[in-house]
Design goal:
Structural class of chain A: mainly beta
Strand content of chain A: over 45%
Shape of chain A: globular
Order of helices and strands of chain A: EEEEEEEEEEE
Structural class of chain B: mainly beta
Largest sheet of chain A: 7 strands, mixed
Radius of gyration of chain B: 13 Å
Largest sheet of chain B: 6 strands, mixed
Distance between the termini of chain A: 37 Å
Oligomer: heterodimer
Helix content of chain A: under 10%
Order of helices and strands of chain B: EEEEEEEEEEE
Strand content of chain B: over 45%
Protein backbone atom coordinates (compact mmCIF):
# COMPACT_ATOMS: atom_id res chain seq x y z
CA UNK A 1 0.00 0.00 0.00
CA UNK A 2 1.33 3.41 -0.99
CA UNK A 3 2.00 5.84 1.82
CA UNK A 4 1.46 9.58 1.91
CA UNK A 5 3.26 11.16 -1.04
CA UNK A 6 4.35 14.77 -1.32
CA UNK A 7 5.55 16.71 -4.35
CA UNK A 8 8.04 18.22 -4.88
CA UNK A 9 10.65 16.99 -2.41
CA UNK A 10 12.49 20.28 -2.61
CA UNK A 11 11.63 23.70 -3.97
CA UNK A 12 13.78 26.80 -4.15
CA UNK A 13 11.97 29.99 -5.17
CA UNK A 14 12.58 33.69 -5.03
CA UNK A 15 10.78 35.97 -2.65
CA UNK A 16 7.54 37.13 -4.22
CA UNK A 17 7.04 34.04 -6.37
CA UNK A 18 4.27 31.49 -6.02
CA UNK A 19 4.74 27.86 -5.04
CA UNK A 20 2.23 25.02 -4.88
CA UNK A 21 2.85 21.95 -2.78
CA UNK A 22 0.92 18.77 -3.36
CA UNK A 23 -0.03 15.93 -1.03
CA UNK A 24 -1.50 12.58 -2.02
CA UNK A 25 -2.88 10.90 1.10
CA UNK A 26 -3.30 7.19 1.66
CA UNK A 27 -6.27 6.01 -0.35
CA UNK A 28 -9.49 6.06 1.63
CA UNK A 29 -8.26 8.41 4.35
CA UNK A 30 -10.79 11.18 4.92
CA UNK A 31 -8.57 13.13 7.33
CA UNK A 32 -5.70 15.10 5.86
CA UNK A 33 -3.42 17.40 7.83
CA UNK A 34 -0.76 19.94 6.90
CA UNK A 35 2.09 20.73 9.27
CA UNK A 36 5.21 22.86 8.95
CA UNK A 37 8.63 22.92 10.58
CA UNK A 38 10.65 26.08 10.27
CA UNK A 39 14.38 26.04 11.03
CA UNK A 40 15.11 25.43 14.69
CA UNK A 41 11.47 25.19 15.68
CA UNK A 42 9.05 22.41 16.41
CA UNK A 43 6.58 20.99 13.89
CA UNK A 44 3.43 23.11 13.93
CA UNK A 45 -0.11 22.40 12.79
CA UNK A 46 -1.42 24.34 9.80
CA UNK A 47 -4.81 22.88 8.96
CA UNK A 48 -7.04 19.83 8.87
CA UNK A 49 -9.35 18.59 6.12
CA UNK A 50 -12.14 16.07 6.48
CA UNK A 51 -12.77 14.96 2.95
CA UNK A 52 -12.97 18.21 0.99
CA UNK A 53 -14.01 20.40 3.94
CA UNK A 54 -11.64 22.47 6.04
CA UNK A 55 -12.25 21.33 9.60
CA UNK A 56 -9.68 23.56 11.27
CA UNK A 57 -7.38 26.11 9.65
CA UNK A 58 -6.37 27.91 12.82
CA UNK A 59 -2.66 27.24 12.21
CA UNK A 60 -2.47 28.94 8.81
CA UNK A 61 0.00 31.83 9.23
CA UNK A 62 -1.76 34.41 7.04
CA UNK A 63 -3.80 34.86 3.89
CA UNK A 64 -0.80 34.23 1.64
CA UNK A 65 -1.43 30.53 2.30
CA UNK A 66 -4.28 28.75 0.54
CA UNK A 67 -5.07 25.06 0.94
CA UNK A 68 -7.50 23.09 -1.15
CA UNK A 69 -8.69 19.52 -1.36
CA UNK A 70 -10.93 19.20 -4.35
CA UNK A 71 -12.97 16.02 -4.44
CA UNK A 72 -11.62 14.90 -1.11
CA UNK A 73 -8.56 13.23 -2.60
CA UNK A 74 -5.24 15.02 -3.00
CA UNK A 75 -4.55 18.40 -1.44
CA UNK A 76 -2.56 21.44 -2.51
CA UNK A 77 -1.01 24.17 -0.41
CA UNK A 78 -0.26 27.37 -2.30
CA UNK A 79 1.94 30.15 -0.99
CA UNK A 80 1.49 33.44 -2.85
CA UNK A 81 3.56 35.57 -2.68
CA UNK A 82 6.28 33.68 -0.83
CA UNK A 83 8.31 35.43 1.86
CA UNK A 84 11.67 34.49 3.37
CA UNK A 85 10.04 33.36 6.63
CA UNK A 86 8.00 30.76 4.74
CA UNK A 87 11.12 28.61 4.35
CA UNK A 88 10.86 25.29 6.11
CA UNK A 89 9.69 21.72 5.69
CA UNK A 90 6.01 21.23 4.98
CA UNK A 91 4.55 17.88 6.02
CA UNK A 92 1.27 16.31 5.05
CA UNK A 93 -0.33 13.54 7.04
CA UNK A 94 -3.43 11.40 6.64
CA UNK A 95 -5.25 8.99 8.88
CA UNK A 96 -6.89 9.59 12.22
CA UNK A 97 -5.85 11.41 15.37
CA UNK A 98 -4.91 8.07 16.91
CA UNK A 99 -2.48 7.26 14.12
CA UNK A 100 -1.44 9.79 11.53
CA UNK A 101 0.84 8.73 8.67
CA UNK A 102 3.21 11.43 7.50
CA UNK A 103 4.69 12.07 4.08
CA UNK A 104 8.39 12.71 3.61
CA UNK A 105 7.85 16.45 3.48
CA UNK A 106 8.58 19.23 1.01
CA UNK A 107 11.59 21.38 1.83
CA UNK A 108 10.79 24.94 0.73
CA UNK A 109 13.55 27.50 0.51
CA UNK A 110 12.68 31.10 -0.27
CA UNK A 111 15.66 33.23 -1.31
CA UNK B 1 -1.15 27.73 25.91
CA UNK B 2 -0.52 24.06 25.19
CA UNK B 3 3.17 23.25 25.32
CA UNK B 4 5.46 20.23 24.95
CA UNK B 5 9.08 20.22 26.10
CA UNK B 6 11.48 17.40 25.32
CA UNK B 7 14.79 16.68 26.99
CA UNK B 8 17.57 16.26 26.36
CA UNK B 9 17.88 17.98 22.98
CA UNK B 10 20.54 15.48 21.96
CA UNK B 11 21.77 12.23 23.46
CA UNK B 12 24.71 10.10 22.44
CA UNK B 13 24.90 6.53 23.75
CA UNK B 14 27.05 3.49 23.21
CA UNK B 15 25.40 0.43 21.70
CA UNK B 16 23.72 -1.50 24.52
CA UNK B 17 23.61 1.49 26.88
CA UNK B 18 19.99 1.93 28.03
CA UNK B 19 18.51 5.37 28.70
CA UNK B 20 15.29 7.40 28.74
CA UNK B 21 13.98 10.40 26.85
CA UNK B 22 11.64 12.81 28.58
CA UNK B 23 8.56 14.64 27.31
CA UNK B 24 6.84 17.04 29.67
CA UNK B 25 3.60 18.69 28.66
CA UNK B 26 1.25 21.44 29.73
CA UNK B 27 -2.23 21.17 28.28
CA UNK B 28 -5.70 22.11 29.41
CA UNK B 29 -6.79 18.54 28.76
CA UNK B 30 -5.15 15.53 27.14
CA UNK B 31 -6.82 13.36 24.53
CA UNK B 32 -3.64 11.48 23.68
CA UNK B 33 0.15 11.62 23.73
CA UNK B 34 2.09 10.41 20.71
CA UNK B 35 5.66 9.31 20.09
CA UNK B 36 7.15 9.46 16.61
CA UNK B 37 10.51 8.57 15.17
CA UNK B 38 11.99 10.73 12.42
CA UNK B 39 14.96 9.82 10.25
CA UNK B 40 16.83 12.48 8.26
CA UNK B 41 14.96 13.54 5.12
CA UNK B 42 11.83 11.61 6.08
CA UNK B 43 8.55 12.35 7.74
CA UNK B 44 7.68 11.34 11.30
CA UNK B 45 6.95 7.63 11.71
CA UNK B 46 4.29 6.70 14.27
CA UNK B 47 5.45 4.66 17.27
CA UNK B 48 2.92 4.85 20.14
CA UNK B 49 -0.22 6.54 21.42
CA UNK B 50 -0.84 6.79 25.17
CA UNK B 51 -4.17 7.94 26.54
CA UNK B 52 -4.11 7.87 30.33
CA UNK B 53 -1.69 8.12 33.23
CA UNK B 54 -0.17 4.78 34.09
CA UNK B 55 -0.42 3.43 30.58
CA UNK B 56 2.61 1.72 29.04
CA UNK B 57 3.30 0.48 25.53
CA UNK B 58 6.23 -1.48 24.14
CA UNK B 59 7.70 -2.10 20.72
CA UNK B 60 10.97 -3.99 20.36
CA UNK B 61 13.57 -2.04 22.41
CA UNK B 62 11.25 0.89 23.09
CA UNK B 63 8.82 1.37 25.94
CA UNK B 64 6.68 4.46 26.42
CA UNK B 65 5.09 5.44 29.73
CA UNK B 66 2.74 8.24 30.70
CA UNK B 67 2.08 10.23 33.88
CA UNK B 68 -0.16 13.25 34.39
CA UNK B 69 2.63 15.66 33.52
CA UNK B 70 5.16 13.77 31.42
CA UNK B 71 5.99 10.78 29.29
CA UNK B 72 9.16 8.76 29.05
CA UNK B 73 10.52 6.81 26.13
CA UNK B 74 12.78 4.12 27.52
CA UNK B 75 15.31 2.58 25.17
CA UNK B 76 16.75 -0.75 26.29
CA UNK B 77 20.03 -2.05 24.87
CA UNK B 78 19.85 0.24 21.84
CA UNK B 79 21.43 -0.54 18.48
CA UNK B 80 22.90 1.88 15.92
CA UNK B 81 19.73 1.59 13.83
CA UNK B 82 17.81 3.20 16.70
CA UNK B 83 19.60 6.46 15.90
CA UNK B 84 16.97 9.03 14.93
CA UNK B 85 15.12 12.06 16.23
CA UNK B 86 12.30 11.08 18.57
CA UNK B 87 9.32 13.41 18.64
CA UNK B 88 6.65 13.72 21.28
CA UNK B 89 3.28 15.30 20.51
CA UNK B 90 0.04 15.84 22.39
CA UNK B 91 -3.53 16.12 21.18
CA UNK B 92 -5.25 18.57 23.51
CA UNK B 93 -8.91 18.03 24.26
CA UNK B 94 -9.71 21.55 23.15
CA UNK B 95 -9.59 21.81 19.40
CA UNK B 96 -10.06 19.09 16.88
CA UNK B 97 -7.38 16.59 16.04
CA UNK B 98 -4.30 18.72 15.82
CA UNK B 99 -0.99 17.68 17.32
CA UNK B 100 1.26 19.95 19.38
CA UNK B 101 4.85 18.78 18.95
CA UNK B 102 7.95 19.12 21.04
CA UNK B 103 11.27 19.97 19.42
CA UNK B 104 12.48 16.39 19.57
CA UNK B 105 15.46 14.52 20.99
CA UNK B 106 18.23 13.64 18.55
CA UNK B 107 19.49 10.20 19.58
CA UNK B 108 22.79 8.79 18.33
CA UNK B 109 23.85 5.23 19.12
CA UNK B 110 27.52 4.54 18.56
CA UNK B 111 28.59 0.97 17.69
Amino acid sequence: EAGVTQFPSHSVIEKGQTVTLRCDPISGHDNLYWYRRVMGKEIKFLLHFVKESKQDESGMPNNRFLAERTGGTYSTLKVQPAELEDSGVYFCASGSYTEAFFGQGTRLTVV
Amino acid sequence: EDQVTQSPEALRLQEGESSSLNCSYTVSGLRGLFWYRQDPGKGPEFLFTLYSAGEEKEKERLKATLTKKESFLHITAPKPEDSATYLCAVDPIQGAQKLVFGQGTRLTINP
